[in-house]
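Hi Prof. W.,

I finally got the 4-alpha-glucanotransferase prediction working! I wasn't sure whether to trim anything, so I left the full sequence exactly as given:
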Amino acid sequence: MDTTVTLPEIVPASYVDAHEVVQELDPSTREAVMAVIADGGRPTPPLVCHPGEALEGVEGSLLTLEGEEVGEIGGVGPEAGYYRLRRPDGSTRFVISAPERFSQPERGWGWAVQLYAARSRDSWGIGDFGDLATIARSAAHAGAGSVLISPVHAAAPVPAQQSSPYSPASRQWLQLLHIAIDDVPGAAEVDLADLAKRGRALNAERRIYRDSVWELKRSALQRIWDATKDRLPVEHDVFVGAGGRDLHLFSVWCVLAEKFGTAHWRGWPEQYRTPAGAEAFAAEHADRVAFYSWAQWVADVQLAAACTAGATIVADIAVGFDSSSADAWVHQSMVSFDYEVGCPPDRHNLDGQKWGLPAINPAALVAADFDLFIGMVRSALRHAGALRIDHVMQLWRLYWVPLGGHPAGGAYVHYPTDALLAILRLEAGRTGAWVVGEDMGTVAAGVRESMASDGMLGYRAALRLPVDQFPEGVMGASSTHDQATVAGTLTGSDMEDLRRIGKSANFEQLEGVRRELAAAAGVDPDAPIGPAEVEKAVIAQYTRLAACKARVVLASLDDAGAVAERPNMPGTVTEWPNWCLSLPRPVEDILTEPLAVHLAEVMDARRH
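And this is what came out:
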C-alpha cells in the first residue's frame, strides 16, 4: 500500500473473471467497502528493500523494533530484518529488509496428507502428530522429499468442534486434537486406560467425530496436567516465555470459550468481548490459562518431533480465520465482520464461493506493522521446512462478499503485496524454507510473474490442467482436497455424489475427464470398474505426473488408499461430510500396501 494509492485503486470498479469477462461492481457495494477500509486510516506504508539495495532519497537513523539505534541508513538496504526508520523530521517508518528470492527445493516428490484422516491403530479417532511422524519416516524411506499436510491451526476448545482446518480459531497456534496422548510428557505417570480404550474405539468408523475426540483428549490432558503442573521442565517455561502476550491472550480466549461453551465471543458478556476487559478474568483463572499454554507447548513439541522424523513437512496456511475466533477477538480492530472472503463464480464453482472468513482491512494491517501476518508466518515456520499458502491471491487481493449476499455481488480488495511478499521471504530465509502459492482459479494479471521472480512455486492439479502443460516452477498434484480423487473420477461416483446433493457442475466436462483417465489407464469406461481398474488408473495418473516438468509432485494418500470420496465439497455445509472422513484403513497399512508401494516407486523414478 503506497502513499500514492487511493481508495478507488484499492477497490477497483471492475475485474476480469475466470471467463475473461469484465465484471462491473455495484456502485453501492464498492462505496461501502471503501468506507470500511477508510476506517483503518491512512498509515505510512513500510519501506521494503533487500540487503545492499541502493535506496535513493531515503534518509534517517535505523532503530531496532525495541528502539535500539543501529545507525544511519546510509543509502543502502540494511541486513535482513525489521526496523524503524527515524526520519529527519522525527517521523518513523516501518522497514522490511528481505532476501530477493525464496530458497528452492530439489526436484522430487512427496505425499499429500489430510492429517486428521490419517489415523493409525494407536490414534484416538483422528490423525495426530505421532501419525505424522510415522508418515514422514515412511516417506523418507521411500525416497520422498516432502509431506504436505492439511492446516494444523488451532480450533476452539468447545463441545461443538470446527471440522474445517481452513476455518481456524487461530493461525498462530496449534490444533490440540492432533496431540498424541501417549507421547505427552508425563502421560506414563497417569492411568489413561479407560480414555485410551474409548479413543481407539472411535477408529471403528470412518466418520471422524471431533466432539468425541475432544472430550476424551481434554480429559486426558487434564489428568496429565494435574499430575505434572508443579514440576514442568524448563523447556516449557522457555516456550511460554517466548509465546509472550500472544500465547497468553490465546489461552485466555480458550478459557473464556470453554467457560461459556461457545467460541462466539461477540455473544459473551460485554466485559469479555475485548482482551482488555478480560484481564481480571485471566487472573482469576490463572491455572486454566496456564493449562492451555501448556497444551500448546505439548502440541509444539510433538509437531517439532514430526518435522524432524523424515521428509520435509510442508505446512499449509489457511486464507483466514473464523469470525468467532481468537484471532478475530485479539485483532478485531483489523477485521470487518460485515464481509466474508470467497471467490466469484468460475468454471469449477459455478455459483462462486463464500468461505465464512471475515475480511481483514489492509489499511489496519499496515497500521499495525503487519504483526498479525508476521506472527502467523513465523509460527508456521517454527518447525516446518516449507509452506503452502492456500489461495495465494490473499497476498494480492481478496474477494469481499457482503455478509448474507451472493458471491457474484462481491468486490476485490487489494493488499500491500510488496510488504507481504517481503515478510514471507524474510521469515522463510531465516530457516531456508521454500514456499508454494496455491494459484488456481481466478488469478490477477502479473501474479504468476511476480511469484516466479521471487522464486515462489505455483500449484497445479491435473484435474484442471493436463500434466504436460505443468511448468517447471510449480508443485504438481493429481487433485486438491476440493476435487475428485482418481477412484471417484474413474468410477463416476464423484459425479453421482454431486447429483445426489444437488451440486452444480459441468457434468459433460467431468465425464470427459473420466474417459480420458480411463484411456490413459487402458480401462474400458463403459465396463464395470473394480479395484483392479482403479489401481491401473492411479498408477497411470501418477506415471504421467512423475514425468512432468514440475519441480515437486505430490501423490495423495487418498489415491494410495483408493478412496472414492472428496475430503471437501466446496459450497456445501451439511450436504457432505466435509473434513470428516478418515482413510479407510490405518495409515501404516496403506503405506505398505502394494498400491502405495508401487505408486512410490513410480514417483521416486523422477529423482533419477
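The mean pLDDT is 95. Does that look reasonable to you?

Thanks,
D.
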